[in-house]
Amino acid sequence: MAATEQTIKQVNTLGDTDYKYGFSTELDEIRPPKGLNEDIIKFISAQKDEPEWMLDWRLNAFKIFNKLPKPEWAKLNIPEIDYQDCYYYSIPKSLKDKPKSLDEIDPEIIKTYEKLGIPLKEQKMLSGIAVDAVFDSVSVATTYKKQLSDLGIVFCSISEAVKTHPDLVKKYLGSVIPVSDHSFAALNSAVFTDGSFIYIPEGVRCPVELSTYFRINAMNTGQFERTLIIADKDSYVSYLEGCTAPMRDENQLHAANVELVALDNAEIKYSTVQNWYPGDKEGKGGIYNFVTKRGACRGKNSKISWTQVETGSAITWKYPSCILQGDNSKGEFYSVAITNNMQQADTGTKMIHIGKNTSSKIISKGISAGKANNTYRGLVNILSKAKNARNFTQCDSLLIGNKCGAHTVPYIESSNSDSMVEHEATTSKINEDQLFYCQQRGLNSEDAVGLIVNGFCKEVLQHLPMEFAVEAQKLVAISLEGSVG
Amino acid sequence: MLEIKNLHVSIEEKKIIKGLNLSINKGEVHALMGPNGSGKSTLSYVLSGKDKYEIDEGTIEYNEKNLLELDVDERANEGLFLAFQYPMEIPGVQTSFFLKTAINSKRKYLGHSEMDALEFAKLMKSKAEELNINTEMLKRDLNVNYSGGEKKKQEILQMSMLSPKMAILDETDSGLDIDALRIVSEGVNKLRSKENSFLVITHYQRLLNYIKPDFVHIIADGRIVKSGDYSLALELEEKGYEEISKSA
């Protein structure tokens, strides 16, 4: 092989391994056969020892799923998904009999999390952050449990909550995202495997960040997480989720449902750093990230704030939304979505103003490089009773190179005359002169892009909890490697 | 330090520099003066490596290296600094953070460890004081909402923190009031040493009252038409470009 050819090949392989979370862990797994049917749902439910009402809920969701068409509104090219060619449940054998303490967890799994920078062992626990780690279909471990339960805070896996707090689960599960909302929501309701459950009692301010780390490990396995967070009156919680997956040539499906409920004067801050495997440069492999996230500000003066940094996944389809029912309630959405190479993202938010004096704020920063397509899609809907409602929306798009696309699709509906809606949008190309200026000061082209893009996203990144803001900045720079020059 | 031989440069087929020769030794300050469109700024961009400029002919040697083979950031890290005529605004990036990133990029290139936060803060504070810059300003986004004078001072601050071997000042005096001009010039004079060199590009003799050059060159239509010592600048002030160029 000629030297140049060899170099090119080597450089190409380097490009493919840019994704530093792309390793997989060798473990014996329990997996039912591929396919989606009632038996699989019964199997999942039985594996989790669920009560009958839960199984019935799932089976009903499956019936609804079969009737619903795939959502078509997004500007995405989604290949036909063969739901029968996917595993719906995977659990490392060593976790079958739920380990009672961290010492009983398979050291390979602990190692996986350590490689990801998420220590689960007590002596290395992240200070100020309680972590729930979800590995394929099950929750592996939750840290800081004791300290939280002393305050009456429930932070556990949803499977556990079904058994330990059935009343709360029955009352709130599916109350924000109806099963029949759309087909991905119904699918998740039928086959959801694990996720986090949080309840903050009245008057409690959760003293630590609560965090879930999702990891898809097994091949051909969908991850269907379900998260439910309830903030009772006068409470506060900040929650963060992180996600990674190994590099695989096949696409993997991730369809999550996240529901938030904030009662009177309660505040929920929900942050996401999504870095699922995006596929290789030619668009082979990667995660399909079809996520439904919705929060209900049910109480007066309640507040829900979404912050997301979306850098991974082959396809991202995600609209974290707020239903502002309570008078004076507030909804916020801060988003950075980066697409490089062949990635596609259609993301944004919905702010539904129902109560009086409700307000919402949307700041979206979309960055597109390579041959990627990045769409902001947002709905601001002000209903007739939402007197004096306010919305401010700002959507900025940044293009790197000339083969990518950025699209902004705002929908604004206002049914009363007291409300005020503002929308600002800009689209620009990364400025060659800015790049030159940075390089003249000694930064290489990639560092220069990282710096400028981080500046562009600052308004959003500063809403992340401190510990993660630094990580997110690095991630922003890494995601754009190879996008210039 | 810097040796430019028979340089021909064009942009989009248009010839801008047409056979320019210039040699700058260690420790020298050269002033390059010329009317609009004579190729002054083009030269500064070619030296710092901005793309879109076509080098049709000629060589540039910098510290015994072929300058034209180095990337923009390599040139910078080898000690070549351009003080921009129009410094760029970078929203969302704090000026002090930018300075730190620049310093550490250079240190990384030279194989040194990163400068720690305390050492950096000290350096920035002392250099800022020298230039009469309020450190509060450095907490703001880089050049965003800076006045013209603040931007230029900020360029000189960057220069003094990066302590380049070869600094090119591209019309640093434009847009400066007399006080700012003095402060900026003092900043430059403090950096002058036997070890480093300057190329000061300007329209006006005024700046050279403060930064006394060792040599003055007059550029017209892409070539240096006359060279001399400081007195040439005074002569130019008196006679104007047209007459000097004619007599050359």
Please write the CATH class name of chain B: Alpha Beta
User: How would you write the strand order of the largest sheet of chain A?
Assistant: 4-3-7-9-11-13-16-18-20-22
N-to-C terminal Cα separation of chain A, in Å? 26 Å
* Average pLDDT, all residues of chain A: 82
The CATH architecture of chain B comes to 3-Layer(aba) Sandwich
Structural class of chain B: alpha/beta
Q: What would you call the structural class of chain A? A: alpha/beta
E-strand count of chain A? 22
The helix fraction of chain A, in percent, is: 10-25%
The termini of chain B sit apart by 27 Å
Characterize the overall form of chain A.
Answer: globular
Helix content of chain B: 25-40%
Question: How large is the count of helical segments of chain B?
Answer: 9
Q: Using the CA coordinates, give the radius of gyration of chain A.
A: 22 Å
Kindly describe this structure.
- The complex is a heterodimer of chains A (485) and B (248).
- Chain A is of the alpha/beta class.
- Chain A has a domain of 298 residues.
- Chain A is built from eleven helices and 22 strands.
- In chain A, the strands form three sheets. Chain A has a ten-stranded mixed beta sheet with strand order 4-3-7-9-11-13-16-18-20-22, covered by helices on one side. In chain A, strands 5, 6, 8, 10, 12, 14, 15, 17, 19 and 21 form a ten-stranded mixed beta sheet that branches.
- The N terminus of chain A is likely disordered.
- Chain B has one domain: P-loop containing nucleotide triphosphate hydrolases (Rossmann fold), CATH 3.40.50.
- Chain B is built from nine helices and twelve strands.
- Chain B has a six-stranded mixed beta sheet with strand order 6-9-10-3-11-12, sandwiched between helices.
- In chain B, a hairpin with a 2-residue loop joins strand 4 and strand 5.
- In chain B, helix 5 packs parallel to helix 6 and helix 8 packs across helix 9.
- At the A-B interface, helix 9 and helix 10 of A face helix 2, strand 7 and helix 3 of B.
